[in-house]
Amino acid sequence: MTDSRRTGVLLVQLGTPRSPTPRDVRSYLRDFLGDPRVLDMSALGRWLLLNLIILPFRPRRSAAAYSQVWLAEGSPLLLHSQRLADQVAAELGSDYLVRLGMRYGEPSLDQAFAELRDADVARIRVVPLFPQYAASTNGSVQQRVMELAANEWFVPALEFVPDFATHPGFIGAAADVARQRMAGFRPDHVLFSYHGLPERQIRKGDKSGSHCLVRDDCCREIGPNNRSCYRAQCAATTRALAEALDLPGESISMSFQSRLGRTPWIRPFTDHVLPELAASGVKRIAVLCPSFVADCLETLEEIGIRGRAQWREAGGDELLLVPCVNSHPRFVTGVADLVRGRA
Fold first, then answer.
1. Are residues 132 and 260 in the same domain?
2. Contacts for 306-310 with beta carbons within 8 Å, 24 or more apart?
3. CA geometry: angle at 43 spanning 38 and 44, to 5°?
4. 35 plus 140 within the same structural domain
């Protein structure tokens, strides 16, 4: 007998502070950086780093950055993500119940899960809104959802939608946005800037120990040793977008932003690549940030404000920040296809 109840859909974003104030940013950072999958070190080391180095100083600086991109309606990340959730719900129709949850902050993942549980859905399909897999994002979401489910007497059926680094809906939407924005700008060079990760987290995913960050061509293609490698998936996204946009290889670069602390992070660094490109004679650069599906602090402030200022100081003329896919119609359809299990 077929279960006629609706399917629950849990869209999950990373999170955002409640407001651009030091107090709310501190609360958000404590939750975010307190996750053992984000700061993967001993509990004592994480406590010392958080409470003696990060939380006493970083909230005020981060709050000032958030205040530069905060909208009258609230957090850009939350607004774009909620619009996406609303449009995905409309695309899927009445057989599905869609909720948005933040892994850290509000509306919380816990709250969204509880709403789907209380609605007596037949199953819950979880969609982490991170195109490339990382244990600190997708993995953290999956772990938390399983913890919540394990606390239920009647454990709901769970299905996790996998990463979508080269899914046609994502690549098509990102290419559409970039093509439209770059048409009048005509960049000399296109930079694909992704969120960074510590090198140790990349190496943890390579069970062979002889591939990731060991071989010079470790990210050239996806294989058994790097199937879940974040850096290799970023490279795959770059290749797919460059092909969709018909960009020659010599006119593109890939880099990584948003590093934290002194531990080695994956390279090259965006804030190093920008002055190098300017010194090479590039004047007009377009920057895409395809590890983010919604515009947020890391795109709007880190690239759109600080990155643009750095570019001009280095001798470049113009830097175009290409928006994320946000709630682009092709991405809405792509997410709905992922929920339905369509390629």
1. no
2. 307/193, 307/270, 307/271, 307/274, 310/271, 310/274, 310/275
3. 125
4. yes
Beta 189-195 vs 252-257: how paired, if at all? Answer: parallel
**Is 212:205 a contact under the CB 8 Å cutoff?**
yes
Check whether residue 184 and residue 266 sit in a common domain: yes
185: which residues sit within 8 A by CB, 6+ positions away?
284, 286, 318, 320
What pLDDT is attached to residue 115? 97
Same domain for 178 and 127, yes or no, is no
3-state secondary structure 89-115: HHHHCCCEEEEEEEEEECCEHHHHHHH
Radius of gyration of the chain (CA): 20
**Structural domain of 94:** 7-164+329-340
Q: Are residues 181 and 63 in the same domain?
A: no
How far apart, in whole angstroms, are the C-alpha atoms of residue 195 and residue 131?
11
Which tokens in the block code for residue 80? Answer: 């774009």
Write a three-state SS string for 168-229: HHHHHHHHHHHHHHHHCCCCCEEEEEEECCEHHHHHHCCCCCCCCCCCCCCCCCCCCCCCCC
The domain that holds 222 is classified in CATH as: 3.40.50.1400
181: exposed, middle or buried (C-beta count within 10 Å: 0-12, 13-18, 19+)? Answer: middle
Total count of domains within the chain: 2
Phi–psi pair at 124, nearest 5 degrees = -125, 125
Residue-wise pLDDT tens digits, 95-136: 999 999 999 999 999 999 999 999 999 999 999 999 999 999
pTM for this structure? 0.96
Strands 252-257 vs 318-321: parallel, antiparallel or unpaired: unpaired
Q: Per the omega criterion (within 30 degrees of 0), is the bond before 268 cis?
A: yes
